[in-house]
Design goal:
414 residues; alpha/beta; TIM Barrel; 4-stranded parallel β-sheet; 16 helices; globular
């Protein structure tokens, strides 16, 4: 269902999150004062924030505290402070469209404007947000009590067939880029294409050229959403480590968006990192809820009819969404424990040098007990309980992704 809803920008333009069904809270891990104190000492980064979609919502402000149970958004400045999130990689997400000149043009324009929304957020509040382009910049920004804003691209579709356009996004601040999203595109096979058949068997010839350009510029290749064969190509061809900005483990739940242990080990062997997501449909199977799905599809149909929502219309549609949650609750949502099962499995297979966190906030991420960024200290508490040290947690929360970022920057132009 998320495939259908995320093909365009409409779902994000209403709620800031695609599908976040609400139920009663699960029993959450206990976070002690000691846990919280340690969490606040760490530099914490999330490698996949879809929050830029919220920036363009009518009447919505990153400066104000919102509620996941009221407007369905999951990240804003007050909640980042409460949850101890120092920042992350703010994604320029573009839904997959037709592989035509017109399709490429529309996607390019949309992506450039979304990138400018991120830059405008930073420019409007320099006391709280700072754009970062190098790994070494994270620590001083965090030490100053400000939020770290790295930029990334989810789905390279907006580049069209002109890979030199990546330089424009690089100059804007982008330092991580994926290749495909829910469907095959001009660069790579997707892990979830509706055809269920490969188009290229990995990267396309143009995709291989794009990888060369990423390596030349110092942009980290992101294999999330791409097929296993694309990951194979990236590991074989990239001159720098590869990142999975928001993925999970097939050994825990066999879903195309997750990777198996063999690929996980291969990723780590090349210095790469898997950043664990909290998108429920990728964590475990859930019971079908056809009445809820039917009601949501009708609601999203209304949204598509109103491409540019007024604050009043958005409020009306939010009220309808809340009615759906009330009348057709999702009683089988994945939980914090399901998320931790993936996290702990990845740590067991490749260790704390190759695992990080990319929860897919405002893009469908969030489970019972881990609803928004306010809940992040629970992850720290759970990892400490599992026996991981403060040094391990610093790697998991930011050290690993920053290492990969530094490696890409050091190797650029070679």
């Amino acid at each position: 269902m998320r495939t259908m809803l995320m093909m365009g920008a409409a779902p994000l333009s209403l709620f800031g999150v695609a599908l976040l069904p609400l139920t009663a809270h699960a029993e959450a891990p206990v976070v002690t004062k000691k846990d919280l104190s340690l969490h606040q000492r760490l530099i914490t980064l999330d490698s996949h924030l879809d929050t830029p979609a919220s920036l363009d919502l009518p009447g919505w402000s990153i400066e104000e505290e919102h509620g996941v149970h009221s407007d369905y958004t999951q990240v804003d400045l007050p909640r980042m402070k409460k949850g101890g999130l120092d920042g992350g990689f703010w994604a320029i997400y573009t839904g997959q469209g037709p592989l035509t000149v017109e399709g490429f043009r529309k996607a390019r324009d949309f992506a450039l404007l979304r990138g400018m929304s991120i830059r405008s957020m930073v420019a409007a509040d320099p006391d709280n947000f700072v754009l970062a382009t190098k790994a070494s910049e994270a620590a001083p920004i965090a030490a100053a009590g400000k939020r770290i804003v790295y930029m990334s691209i989810e789905n390279a579709y907006p580049l069209g067939e002109d890979i030199t356009l990546l330089k424009t996004f690089y100059d804007m601040g982008v330092r991580v880029s994926g290749f495909a999203h829910f469907a095959h595109n001009q660069f790579a096979d997707s892990s979830t294409d509706p055809s269920k058949k490969p188009r290229y068997g990995g990267l396309s010839p143009l995709g291989k050229e794009l990888l060369k350009e990423m390596n030349r510029l110092g942009v980290v290749p992101d294999a999330s959403h791409s097929s296993d064969q694309v990951l194979d190509d990236l590991l074989a061809l990239s001159t720098t480590p590869v990142l999975l900005t928001h993925s999970g483990c097939k050994a825990v739940y066999d879903h195309p968006r997750n990777i198996d242990d063999e690929h996980l080990k291969a990723l780590a062997a090349k210095g790469g990192v898997i950043q664990m997501n909290a998108y429920g449909a990728y964590l475990r199977a859930s019971k079908p809820n056809p009445e809820r799905q039917k009601a949501l599809m009708a609601l999203y149909g209304q949204m598509r009819e109103d491409a540019k929502l007024s604050p009043e219309k958005r409020a009306e549609l939010l009220a309808k969404r809340q009615e759906i949650d009330k009348h057709y609750p999702d009683t089988d949502r994945p939980t914090f424990d399901d998320f931790m099962a993936h996290m702990l499995h990845a740590l067991k297979v490749v260790g704390p040098d190759h695992v990080g966190i990319g929860l897919d906030w405002d893009g469908g991420g969030g489970v019972v007990g881990l609803e928004d960024v306010v809940d992040l200290p629970k992850i720290t508490a759970a990892l400490l309980k599992a026996g991981y040290s403060e040094a391990d947690l610093q790697k998991i929360w930011s050290g690993n992704v920053l290492r990969v970022l530094a490696a890409a920057d050091a190797a650029k132009g070679k």
